[in-house]
Structures are given as structure tokens and as C-alpha cells.
Amino acid sequence: MAFREYKIGARLFGLALGGSMMITLYMPSLNIVEVASTETGLRKGLSYGRVGGFSVEDPFLQGEGKPKTVMLSQDPSTGQAIEPVYAYVYEAGTPFTSSIRHPRILGAGVKDLSLEQGRIGEANQASGAVFVVAEGSWNGESVSYIENATATRNWSPDAVLSAAGDANTRYIGSGKIMFVREGCWWCHTLLPEETQDWQVFGVPPRLGDYNSESPTAFGSDRKAPDLLHVGSRNSSREWMMMHFFNPRLVQPHSIMPRYDYLWGDNDAAGNRIDFVQWRNEYNAYVSGARVYPPEVPEPAADSEARYLIDFVLSLK
Ligand code: HEC
Predict the structure, then answer these.
(1) What is the model's pLDDT at position 25?
(2) Ligand 1 within 6 A of 257 CB?
(3) Domain termination residue (choose one: 151, 173, 195)
(4) For a pocket test of ligand 1, which of 221, 256, 262 has the largest count of ligand atoms closer than 8 A to its C-beta?
(5) Is the CB of 255 under 6 A from ligand 1?
(6) 187 in ligand 1 pocket by Cβ < 6 Å?
(7) Secondary element (H or E) of residue 144
(8) Which residue's CA is minimally distant from atom 32 of ligand 1?
């Protein structure tokens, strides 16, 4: 019979199309709002702060209006030694992250524990607050939730910052802005895939890792290593410092651009950075006229380079 193959083909096509329409229309779909935040999701949301793209409080993407993440090993209100915890410090006026403003997005269980035991509803943006991630139990399962330590432990943002000191303070939220602004995602992904990627870049993320993050910076076209867990493979601040100042210092054939301008005018000691002299010395090193490359200046505490390094090292 003429056109027999076409008839068979047309029927199979109809079957496939019809089948996929049935699945789309009638299979229960995943309701993203119901997905409970994981501990990773809570920590990311709390350290990144509100929206990490263009926003009213930071229209020029300079990392303003972001919380600080500190490692505490003593209780700032009683002075007693405690198990080290990460505290997420929102100074007076710092915009709260979405999950504090809209606890519903934390998902069932996490939301209830955060509101009832964590008392996040009592946090006040105008006077600031300190949050920590706590463990609780919900329907017999262990669940991480957000605790408003300002209400539960009487920790004020200022007391926590001064108890931690600069050495234990990280500007992770401001660093995420640098990552977005500098377009690191043109080359790097933050999304290991469910393939051999596992062996090199670590586990792929879970849906609940993103409940409070905006924007996500998955990247699309990978030209360089995935960075979702880079802080676990390489936790050296020194290496990051050299690599961002000029990647060729540590990877001679790297195509990654240098980000030395994120250092600003002065180094950590307050001395002016002489970029012209640095490059002359570096060129002398590359041409073999010098044995060692010039020293990379230590980034100042409020420099964009420090923000970026704090963010990258937080990717565990
Ligand atoms: C033009 C593409 C490109 C851009 C843009 C880029 N990188 Fe890279 N990056 C690379 C390449 C290629 C490598 C691997 C070689 C090397 O280490 O330099 C790399 C390596 C890295 C590493 C080490 C990865 C590992 O597995 O140890 C880090 C961390 C990193 N980049 C961070 C960044 C950050 C942060 C930005 C944005 C400020 C950025 N990169 C922008 C191409 C890029």
C-alpha cells in the first residue's frame, strides 16, 4: 500500500504527542512552593541577603545592603565559650532575605519551626537582627530551621560583630554581587550535572538549596571548572588572592581575565597599590629577567576583592 510508512509514522507521532499532552495535563506536577528548604538553602539565603542583582538598595552592584556572616565561638551576650556557629548579621536597616520576609517560601515544616521556635516573625529590619541555623524535629524528622538569635539569645548585631572581629567576618553576600556583576558565570557554572561531573565537581545541588536565593547563577555554557563546591577542593585564601589578581601567576596558560581592579586603590595596610610598577615587574618575570613574580597585595577589608574571595571560599 502506498504511503504505508507515513501512516504508521503519523499514528506513532499522534500517540507520542497525545501521550505527552496527557502527562503534562493530568500527572500531578511538582509544586515548587511546597519544596522545603535544605540546610544549604537556609545558609545561602541568610548569607546572600535580599536580591543579589539590580536592586534599590544597590543600584550599581557594589555589594551594599548585604548581611555579614561571622563565625562565633563565644556567646556575645554572656561571654561564655560555645560550639562554633555561623551567625548571619543584619545590621540596622539591612534588607532581610526573602525567606524572613515571606516565611512561606521555606516550605512546610521549616516555615513552622522557624516561626514557632525560631521566632523569625519578631525580627525587625529597622533595628537589625542576627540569625543562626538550628536543628529541630518535625513529624519525627530532623529539620533545619532559622532561629532569630536576637529574640532567642539576646544577640544584637553590634555585639556579634565585635565578638567575632574582622578575622572571623565574611562578606559573602557582597561577594555574590561581585560574582554576578563581573560575569564569572560566562565561563563558570554553579551546577554540577548528574553525570561524570560528580567525580570532579561534587554532588549536584537539590531543589531545596535555592528557596531564598535570587538570582541563581547557574551559568549556561561552561568554559571553565564548575565552582559550586570549589571551596572544598581549594580553601586557600592565598591562592585565591593570587589567582584573582592575575590567574597566570598560578595557572600559566589560564584564559581567565585578571580582576586586579577589584583591589581598589589601597591594600590592607592602607598603602597605595602601584599597578603600573606591578605589571612592569610581572612582565620582567614573564620574560625571564626576574626569578620571582612580584608580591600580590593583601586586599583591604572593605575591598571588592575581599568580598569576592569570601564568596568563592564559601562555596563548599
Ligand atoms: C574567560 C573565562 C573566565 C572568566 C570570565 C572567569 N574565569 Fe575563572 N577560570 C577560568 C578558567 C579557564 C579556569 C581554569 C584555569 C585557571 O585556574 O585559571 C578558571 C579557574 C577559576 C577558579 C579555580 C577553579 C578550581 O577548580 O580550582 C576559580 C575559583 C575561578 N576561576 C573563579 C572565577 C571568578 C570568581 C570569576 C569572576 C570574577 C571568574 N573565575 C571569571 C575562566 C574564567
Answers:
(1) 85
(2) yes
(3) 173
(4) 256
(5) yes
(6) yes
(7) strand 141-148
(8) 184
Q: Tens of pLDDT along 125-180?
A: 999 999 999 999 999 999 999 999 999 999 999 999 999 999 999 999 999 999 99
Quick check: 32 pLDDT over 80? no
Count of the separate structural domains present in the chain: 2
pLDDT tens digits, residue range 215-234? 999 998 899 999 999 999 99
286 lines ligand 1 (CB under 6 A): no
The sheet with strand 68-74 has its strands ordered as: 141-148, 129-138, 81-90, 68-74, 169-170
Residues 100, 146: contact at Cβ < 8 Å?
Answer: yes
C-alpha cell at 125: 529590619
67 plus 150 within the same structural domain: yes
Cα–Cα distance, 221 to 224 (Å, whole number): 9
Which CATH number does the domain housing residue 245 bear?
1.10.760.10
Q: Does the beta carbon of 307 lie inside 6 Å of ligand 1?
A: no
Using the atom order of ligand 1, give the atom closest to the CA of residue 186.
Answer: 5
Q: What percent of the chain has pLDDT over 90?
A: 86
Residue 28, pLDDT > 90, answer no
Sign of CA dihedral 77, 81, 83, 85: positive
